[in-house]
Write a structure and sequence with these properties.
- The protein is of the alpha/beta class.
- The chain has a single domain (about 5-235), classed as Vaccinia Virus protein VP39 (Rossmann fold, 3-Layer(aba) Sandwich), CATH 3.40.50.
- Helix content is about 40%, strand content about 25%.
- It has 10 helices and 7 strands.
- The chain has helices spanning about 10-15, 20-25, 30-40, 60-65, 75-85, 125-135, 150-160, 165-175, 200-210, 210-220; strands at about 45-50, 70, 90-95, 110-115, 135-145, 185-195, 225-235.
- Strands 3-2-1-4-5-7-6 form a 7-stranded mixed beta sheet, sandwiched between helices.
- Strand 1, helix 4 and strand 2 form a beta-alpha-beta unit.
- Bound molecules: S-adenosylmethionine.
- S-adenosylmethionine binds next to loops.
């Protein structure tokens, strides 16, 4: 089993945040993730924490509904990029921090969102206990990640057959850490990553999955990649 804490996926993309937003347009062209989050939780007038907010992809549209969005992000390049994007949005606060050490007081947030970020948690227990600490009573945590039973898993296994079950292990770890929450609901969504051409598909897969996976994508002309999303929604 690959070591979760040293999994290097996406690192080269985080160094060039201007590439991240177009990439997420291919990753979720219909914005099914944002639409599902908005259907699951009433964010109106709520105080929200976006953990590992990246370029502010979710924080920005959510700030149009919420009272306040606090976006924490540890990567300096991502932070600098996000700060420029949100400079005129008064109800978004950006801080350099990670899930393991959240710079907010106890019971501060109504909702915490962890979207595509659990793969980077160095310490699951510590991160989830921090999230629980900053959530208020009846506060809601929402985690989005791969279900594992999809093309991402297939491509991951081409590159590293020892990583079998890596996605399932991560989401099972999430569920384990949510034992103290009142209600935990999960939802699996089928979404399709659609690349505009095979050169871009190959480049992105090379950077995020590796050479062998990229070769497979080119040989099979995979412009559409099934990306099953696992969404967990828990009440404190
Ligand atoms: C795939 S991006 C997701 C960004 C954003 N949440 C989204 O859905 O578009 C993962 C982000 O998590 C950040 N990250 C890495 N380690 C982290 C940690 N320990 N705690 C919080 N965020 C982290 C990365 O720098 C990166 O910006």
């Amino acid at each position: 089993m690959a070591d979760l804490s040293t999994f290097e996926e996406w690192k080269s993309i985080y160094k060039k945040p201007e590439r991240y937003d177009p990439l997420t347009k291919w990753l979720d062209p219909t914005e099914i993730e944002l639409k599902t989050i908005l259907n699951l939780i009433d964010l109106k007038d709520k105080t929200i924490l976006d953990v590992g907010a990246g370029t502010g992809r979710l924080a920005i549209p959510i700030s149009e509904i919420a009272k306040k969005v606090c976006a924490i992000e540890p990567h300096e390049d991502m932070i600098n990029y996000m700060e420029k994007k949100v400079v005129e949005i008064e109800n978004i606060e950006v801080k350099r921090a990670s899930a393991e050490d959240i710079p907010y007081p106890d019971d501060f947030f109504d909702v915490v969102i962890c979207s595509w970020v659990i793969q980077h948690f160095k310490d699951f227990k510590k991160s989830f206990s921090e999230i629980k600490r900053v959530l208020n009573k009846n506060g809601i945590l929402l985690v989005v990640y791969n279900n594992g039973d999809d093309d991402w898993e297939k491509l991951t296994l081409i590159e590293d057959p020892n990583s079998k079950g890596i996605f399932q292990k991560r989401y099972k770890n999430v569920l384990k850490e949510l034992k103290g929450f009142q209600t935990v609901k999960t939802k699996v969504l089928d979404s399709f990553i659609t690349f505009p051409n095979i050169q871009i598909a190959e480049k992105i897969i090379r950077e995020t999955r590796g050479l062998e996976a990229a070769k497979y994508v080119r040989e099979n002309n995979m412009l559409k990649i099934l990306n099953k999303m696992f969404i967990v929604y828990a009440k404190k």
